[in-house]
Amino acid sequence: MPSRQDGPWLDDAAGRLIRPYTVSGGRTRPTASLDLLSLVMATGTVPPAPLGPEHTVALGLCDGPTSVAEIAAHLRLPAVVTKVLLSDLVDCGALTARAPRYHDTTTDRSLLEAVLDGLRRRL
Q: Residues 35, 99: contact at Cβ < 8 Å?
């Protein structure tokens, strides 16, 4: 019997009733450049009607900036399938995507030495 919180696509005993790549229409490459740490957020634009239920759930998870990895975990789908779904939503204007911000500053050597010293004291 399907679990109420997981919807009709998951079954407690059998697991996922639809293969993940069926959800993405067999596509394995997203059209948008998305990293696992990319942040996606809903724009308020209503996507076209033919999108599937997973698209709707994914869009509902994006009220605020949410990482691709987080959405994949909530959907219980592989990251590549989630990226395809999210790129569909980016392409139709329902989501915006922002690459993760990396700090260009190098790590302070004194900080690393303090961490190493603390680890040695614990041993």
A: yes
